[in-house]
Amino acid sequence: MRQCNTAEDLVQVAYDHLDTISPRGIAAFWSLLVKHVQNHRGGNSRAQLNEQLDAILCNTLENMKRYSHIDISTIAISLAKIMKQVESRGQRAATGSLHRNLHLLLVGVNSESKHYIFSQISMHAIPILYTFDARCLSNLINSFGHAEYVPKVEDGRSILDILALEVMSKLHHFNSQDLSNMLWSYAKLESSNSSLFTAVGDSIVDTNDLSESWPQALSNIAWAYATAG
Amino acid sequence: MKDLRQFLPQHLSNIVWSYATSGESHPQLYRKFGDHIVGMKDLGLFKPQELSNIIWAFATAGESNPKLFSKFGNHIVAMRDLGAFLPQHFSNIVWSYATAGESHPQLYNKLTNHIVAMKDSSGFKPQELSNIIWAFATAGESHPLLFQKLADVAIARSNNFNSQGIANFLWAHAAVGIIDQHLFTIFAPAVKSVLGQFNSQNVANIAWAYAVANVNDPSLFNADFDDVCQARANDFGMEGYFQLHQWQLWQDELKPGINLPPALHKNCRQAFDLRLPQPSRLQDDVVSVLSSIGLRPEEEVLTASGYRLDALVEVNDMKVGIEVDGPSHFINRDATGSTLLKRRQVSTLDDICIVSVPYWDWNKLGKDRVKKQQYLRSKLGLV
After folding, report:
1. Is residue A56 part of a domain?
2. Boundary-marking domain end, from B220, B249, B275
3. Which of B44, B71, B140, B174 is the most exposed place for a label (fewest CB within 10 A)?
4. Residues 6+ apart with CB under 8 A from A220
5. What is the C-alpha to C-alpha distance for residues A44 and A33, in angstroms, rounded to an integer?
6. What is the pLDDT confidence band of residue A157, given thresholds at 50, 70 and 90?
7. Number of domains forming the structure of chain B
8. Structural domain includes residue A217
9. Within an 8 Å CB–CB cutoff, is residue B21 touching chain A?
10. Domain range holding B108?
């Protein structure tokens, strides 16, 4: 799939191997499609594209129970980025174009498709949340931020509140980018979680305070000792 | 996380932006990030959006860090070109400095020069125009070329401003004493269309701004305006009462103007009269010299309109009000809107001619009492 030069080629390859494609392969497909959508210059796509994309999406959602935390978080962040790309452009794009097709498929009327897709992702992610590492948790949360949608789970709680509990138990594994993307999403979605923000803030405050001046200061000291003989 | 060096500018920016946007307080985090950034050798890796988001977050969260503001300001001032900055960045940056009360005149100069030189200003949204002008006025920075340029842009899209944007934009022009009557005339229909959406502060600011600009539009200031004031009568606070009293005085100037609802009118007048005198050493000195040249100045005189004059003397059977104007009465030695309004209304309504003694004139005379006497004689036409 990496050799495909266009979105159409990529979709064709994935569609042709849909019966045998692995979860990792599906995740790779959506991830690669992000870049093609970003670089796509418009124009009409071939007639079968919509049908093929629909089949790939159905396959993705139907088999999600077999997917690992890496697959789910990769698919979630990729779909969210594509939705973001086509959300406004797709509505204005010509009928039959890639952006228009993706808009109809992934966003839909009144964002109904988007809500359904992310509800499915949440439903399959929650039972295996304990397997998610820091990067995958951050990507999953970030996907909701990009999609600007927070699915509700069965007991009426926001999935972001459930995810916050999981994050706090693994906070020491988060790097700066994971934290940055995750907090951005909570803020963007106006779904703040005070316990999480306090815990993240405390963990950052506890990091070593090595500013840029330190290496220079240390080398100056070393130079001073060296030249003093 | 081993240490803060792994945080890229984007991470620092996203994180403080998230805390500020969510209203989540964490003073130690802001201090840690602030000190970390202040300790950096240079800010070359920070993109305009990161600079503006970080400074916006500190201002929004009310986290004081003068060194950070100074460092960011100096960094932007030292940049060769601001072409990578978007209008939103300019807006957020100056809004943040004004909101945080952090002074940085060189920064305001740099941004002014850049914006004034921009060939295409169509990218400025109404809220950005309003925030920029509000920030300059709040910081006491008057740059007539910038105000004029952004007024021209605003006039072209006056119908796209929201109520807060209109109130801030017009208030700012009036506050710095840049009176573009065309601007106020063009905006009157837009003001009328959002009048019902104004909060009490917006109403008072708009009323005061039009009073300063002296632009009357009967389709705006009429019984409907009175109704809007009446509906917010209990929310104005002292500052709002002052402003509405000055608006009422303006209506008295217009002859015939309209009147505030009676109870509100009374409250405004009472609040205005209750303002305490604020004598200064400068004022005491001027009064002393006035006495020494044979005039018998009355101090802190309350006029019929409710204004308080620093001193009142009689010269050739005419009453002359002496205003000893300290730095707060000016921006770059130009009178603020508040100062201009007082001079005009005392002259028109109280029939008292005002003579201003600006602080820089007086300070220049040093301790030379003879020169001070000559100065005042000259000002009062007694030479």
Report:
1. yes
2. B275
3. B44
4. none
5. 17
6. confident
7. 3
8. no
9. yes
10. 1-119
Tell me how many domains chain A contains.
1
Contact B323, B355 (CB under 8 A): yes
In this structure, is residue B136 part of a structural domain? no
Same domain, B315 and B249: no
Given this model, what pLDDT does residue B242 score? 96
User: What is the per-residue pLDDT across A55-107, written as a single tens digit (0 to 9) for each?
Assistant: 999 999 999 999 999 999 999 999 999 999 888 776 777 777 888 889 999 99
Q: Is A88 on the interface with B (CB under 8 A)?
A: no
Half-sphere exposure of A35 (CA within 13 A, CB side): 11
Q: Based on the domain organization, do B26 and B67 belong to the same domain?
A: yes
The one-letter amino acid at B124: F
Residue span of the structural domain in which A116 resides:
7-207
What gap in Å lies between CA B382 and CA B293, rounded to an integer? 10
- How close is the nearest chain B Cα to the Cα of A182, in Å? 9
Inter-chain touch B19–A203, beta carbons under 8 Å: no
Burial class (CB in 10 A: 0-12, 13-18, 19+), B53: buried
Q: Which of A212, A216, A218, A220 to mutate to test the interface with B (most CBs of B within 10 A)?
A: A212
CA dihedral B228, B230, B236, B242 (to 10 degrees): 100
Domain assignment of residue A226, yes or no: no
Cβ separation of A197 and B35 shorter than 8 Å?
no
Pair B297, B342 in one domain = yes
Strands B318-325 and B353-358: parallel
* Residue A52 CA from chain centroid, whole number: 23
**Residue A228 predicted with pLDDT over 80:** no
Q: Are B1 and B114 in a shared domain?
A: yes
User: B239 and B168, same structural domain?
Assistant: yes
Contact residues, chain B, for A186 at CB < 8 Å: 18, 22
Q: Which residues on adjacent β-strands are paired with residue B346?
A: none
**pLDDT at residue A92, rounded to an integer:** 72
**pLDDT > 70? residue A229:** no
Are residues B253 and B169 located together in one domain of the fold?
yes
Tens of pLDDT, residues B45-67: 999 999 999 999 999 999 999 99
Residue that finishes a domain, picked among B241, B275, B309: B275
Question: Domain for residue B140, yes or no?
Answer: no
